[in-house]
Amino acid sequence: MSKRVDKFTKRRLHSSNITVVISISLVLFLIGILGMIIINANSYIDYLREQMVIEVFFKNSSDPKTEVQDEKNQLQYLDSVRAYSYVKSVKYIAKTQATQIAKKELGVDTEALFESDIYPASVTVSLKSQYIDSAHIETVKRLLQKNTIVDEVKSDSALLSKMNRSIDKVIIGTSVLTVIILIIAISLINNSIRLKIFSKRFIIKTMQLVGARRFFIMKPFLIQAVWLGTLGAVIALILLFCVDYALIHYDILPPVVDYTYYILLSVFIILLGIIITTASTHLATWRYLGLRLDDLYYS
Q1: Contacts of 92 (CB under 8 A, 6+ apart)
Q2: How many separate helices (H) and strands (E) can be counted in the chain?
Q3: Which of 22, 82, 227, 231 has the most neighbouring CB atoms within 10 Å?
Q4: 86 DSSP 8-state letter
Q5: Domain with 98 in it
Q6: Do 18 and 99 sit in the same domain of this protein?
Q7: Can you tell me the mean pLDDT for 55-61?
């Protein structure tokens, strides 16, 4: 009879642990999905910012004798701009290319309406995302304008303002959603742990009544909580990377170049799983240690 009771008790314990692990892994998986959205949103925001370019137009000389020297000076200027730390990429557009681009944009094929290479050579400068703001752009424009071969430097200030407003809305919305999801996650994991500890409240009180110290009673529960939190986090990460692989495989997301954010997300999920389960276990166990024996039937 006692063996049957032991087997039944072990089954209940295993079932309780499995339920807790599943709850933890699903909640952490949800947080991981949100983390992936934030990581890719940041990458997309950086991509959008880097589409904001500064156009540098060179002085347009009509003297064919100086054309070779002018182009040489422009290429030297290009190399000097490329060396700046805030520059991501630089593209040179020669006079002939500028004319061809103008024809294409205006929908003109005939040479009759165009003089030969009436448009000046230019350079489009793309800045790194952290430098895409009004103050930095104005500073960069002043630096680019200093060279004597430069005629004019332009950027779309209205587009920048509109883009920054949209980005701010995305960041605020994502931050609010993150806080809500974290609160829900903590509540769900805490409830799962409390139910698990609730089933052992009489064991906890019995150990206390026979003279066991509080830390001695709590220690096995805390160790188990660490293991359950770690296991739930690992399962969540496996599911998360399977989803990420599928999204990349079907070209929904671009291939990951820098894994730094993904590594940080993995560490965060593991730590979050351990911290929430350990804290919930500590609070739930401490609560039952502080109750009177009669109160255990009504808690």
Answers
A1: 74, 75, 78, 121, 122, 123
A2: 8, 4
A3: 231
A4: T
A5: 53-155
A6: no
A7: 81
